[in-house]
Structures are given as structure tokens and as C-alpha cells.
């Protein structure tokens, strides 16, 4: 039995000749046809998943940057981008965009509320991906950016004239000194004419070189109230021999008084475009002469001056006095000062404080270019407005463009772009 089984097995092995080459090739081709789509599907799926993960990382990175831009103040963002965006100092900077579309780091001092800014950020890690980003803030046109906004004005130099009759009121001080002087000279009997008052504010800047620093301009501001009190009195004429009074002569004379104030006793250091806000709150001069106010700004200092006329009487008295109020406000600057340069005046001098409508016709404004040439046709600026109002860019379109981490010049095509808005 064992011999027969062995013979049968031998016959089977000898009869099995295996697969031919053609059969193997056909099998391989069939296998390739079946497996190739499966492999392609697998590779495509893996690539799609990788792109999806990278797109998700990019979306998250762009949204995070956009939220940080929205949360930061505009001043903070343009002055210290790294701090505002919470990245290392070397990874964020303000850039300039050339006409050819290229970007370069900015070394200039940024202008607040400019029309466009570019902030470059590098080494942004999101998920398993790393990116570089260029953030563009572009101001749009429209109501938010065209509306006038009241500006904050610091009160750096302030003079508020005391109420009439108070001891430290310069008008009262001058009048009391005049009365005492005229009484002493005339013997107690004199006739006073209409007094006059001139207010002169002088601003000057002195440049000094500070060690290890740039040249600093230190500003001084002086205020002077000048008074003249014309009066006359009768002086007796005596005979030089007998000493008897033979008659009298009329003596016409003038008492003068100047009261000075230093509005910046510690000075004011002007750095960059900084300049002080100066406030002069004065009592109107309702005497029968012109109220003269002169601002000497021959250094062409660009500062806002708030010239505020104060209420000094009851409404019924103001209604009687104000229509006859006359004043001349003069701004004296150098001949080199451009028409829109130098000081900017804000005043209510032409306005009725008694509630009457319209403006006081007797108040004029002159802008001098040099000591002799002036334009008398200049309209009194900002009638009644005692605040600075300017249209400012407040609404910005924010575009975050993400680039590959190897693209440090931001010149390639963005991998992802995200757009939002920022309201300052």
C-alpha cells in the first residue's frame, strides 16, 4: 500500500509542470490593474489629508493673527508690532512696499492713522506647520474715516485770568496801581481818559545738544498784560519870588504797567512732532478801546492755541457791552512760515456770551508773515469752537497673507489669505 501511494505522489509531481511565463505576466498585469487604482487612491488620500491639515493650520494661524490685530491698538501695532502680536521681537516688524511689489523693513517713524501699513511676521507655528505672514492694514473711504473726531489736547501751558475785582486779576492790579499813582502825583484830583490793554504771548524755542541724544528744542512761553492809563490834572503855578499861586497848567501824562507771567516755568521739550497745547482764558476788555491780543510765534512752532473769552458779568450787562466789544487778534510768524504752518488758533472771541445770535463784528484777525506784512482778510478761524476736530482713518481692512516658512521676502504666491476689518 505504501508503494502504491508513493508511486501516485510521484506521478502527480511529475505531471505538474508549474505556470508558464505568459501566465505569470498576465497575472502580474491583472494584479497591477487591480492594485494601481488602490495605490493611487491611497496616495491621493494621504496628500489630500496633508493639504487639508496644512490648510487648517493656515486658517487657524491667520485667524489668530487677525484677532490679535483687532485686539491691539493701532499705535501699539505700528510702534511695536512684536509686542502687539505677542511674538519674539525679531519676528515682527513694520515694512514698506515698493512699486514693484517687494517688501523691505521700515526704519522710519510710523505716522499714526496713515492710509496703509504693512506688518511682516515670521516663524508662525500652527499645528504641525510653520508660516511667514504679511499683514496689510488699508484704510477705506467712507463715513467712519470721513467723520470729524474731537482730538485730545493736553493742557501744557494754561493761564486763566482771575475774575474782575479779585486781588490777582491783572486788570484789577493795574487799575489800583494807577489810581494810587495818579492820586499821589495829582494831589487827589485828576481826570482819567480811556485806558488801553494789550496782551502779548511770546513763544520761543532754543535748540540744545544733549549728550548721546539728538538736538532738543526747548520751548518757552511768556505772557504779558500791558496797560496804559492816560490822565490829566491841574498843577498850580507859583511865583518863584513870592511863592504865591499865580495860576495853573493842565498836565497830560500816562501811567504804564506791565504784568508778566511764565506759562512754561519748567520749559517744554519738543521731540519729533510734539508741541504743547496753550490755553489763554482771558477777560474781555470792555473799555472804550480795542482789546489787542498778539501771539508772537516767530519760531513758527506748530502748536494749538485756545483763546477763550470768559464771562465776566451778568447776562443783562453782557447784552449791553458785547455789541460794542472791539478786539484785534494778531498772529505774528516768520516770513518763511507756510500759510498752513505754525500755530493754529481756536477761539470764541467773536461769539456772543450773552446768548445773542450771530457774531460780534468788531473782532478781527490778522496773520503776519514777518513783522510788517499781514493778511487782514483772514477769516476768524473756528468760530466758537474750542476743540480740535479732524477726520481720521478709523476703519481698516486687514488682510493676512500666509507664505511658506522658506519665503522670507513675501514675494511668492500666498498659501492662504484671510480678510477682516479693524475699527480703531
UniProtKB/TrEMBL annotation:
<dbReference type="Pfam" id="PF07963">
    <property type="entry name" value="N_methyl"/>
</dbReference>
<protein>
    <submittedName>
        <fullName>Prepilin-type N-terminal cleavage/methylation domain-containing protein</fullName>
    </submittedName>
</protein>
<dbReference type="InterPro" id="IPR045584">
    <property type="entry name" value="Pilin-like"/>
</dbReference>
<keyword id="KW-0472">Membrane</keyword>
<feature type="transmembrane region" description="Helical">
    <location>
        <begin position="21"/>
        <end position="43"/>
    </location>
</feature>
<dbReference type="InterPro" id="IPR012902">
    <property type="entry name" value="N_methyl_site"/>
</dbReference>
<keyword id="KW-0812">Transmembrane</keyword>
<keyword id="KW-1133">Transmembrane helix</keyword>
